[in-house]
Design the sequence.
């Protein structure tokens, strides 16, 4: 099992490796595999990049994120300007049914609501908005529409795992109940855990994924 000191060193190195991140702006604390990030960055996309960098590190079991986004005076935008930019960006993204999404902006916080047919559309909306100037945080309250006909969800998910180089399908059990999928078993990193969940959400007629995958470094169960 990796020590907190080893994990922290790798987290700091991974942050330094990211070209969009100034690692000197971010504080890192590791306790029992839980990484706490703190500090201030000047864009929401940098905040997300820091989180993704940490998830790639082996031994990280969870992230407690307390990084604040603060724009300089010259970059400050009104909520009305941010809202217009959000709506325009959603319109330009072909993966997002913008007519089904409602936008609300409060002090730089963007709240998305509405209904879409697929989980990837919900995630695409958040990703599109998160890169815009003036956005401090994105709250994704978009829900999924109910469909009628169920498919062979379990089989499709397992085939998706088999196609993914970074997900070991042999250690993952897929349990289906109606439109809910439960993932059980073990993975080697937080990123692998999230990738497995994302793959499950991509299957037809899946509205909810219960992720019970345990993070366990491969050497621990070799």
Sequence:
């Amino acid at each position: 099992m990796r020590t907190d000191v080893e994990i922290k060193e790798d987290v700091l190195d991974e942050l330094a490796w990211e070209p969009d991140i100034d690692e000197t702006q971010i504080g890192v604390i590791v306790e029992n595999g839980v990484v706490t990030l703190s500090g201030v960055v000047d864009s929401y996309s940098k905040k997300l990049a820091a989180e993704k960098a940490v998830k790639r590190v082996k031994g990280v079991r969870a992230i407690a994120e307390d990084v604040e986004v603060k724009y300089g005076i010259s970059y400050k935008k009104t909520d009305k300007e941010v809202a217009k930019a959000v709506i325009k960006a959603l319109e330009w993204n072909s993966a997002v049914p913008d007519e089904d999404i409602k936008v609300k902006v409060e002090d730089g916080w963007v709240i998305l609501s509405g209904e879409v047919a697929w989980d990837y559309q919900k995630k695409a909306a958040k990703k599109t908005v998160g890169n815009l100037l003036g956005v401090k945080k994105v709250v994704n309250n978009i829900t999924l529409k109910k469909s009628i006909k169920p498919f062979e969800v379990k089989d499709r998910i397992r085939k998706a795992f088999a196609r993914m180089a970074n997900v070991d399908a042999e250690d993952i059990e897929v349990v289906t109940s109606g439109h809910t999928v439960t993932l059980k078993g073990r993975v080697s990193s937080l990123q692998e855990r999230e990738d497995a969940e994302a793959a499950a959400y991509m299957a037809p007629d899946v509205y909810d994924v219960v992720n019970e995958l345990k993070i366990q470094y491969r050497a621990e169960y070799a």
Notes: The chain has a mean pLDDT of 84.
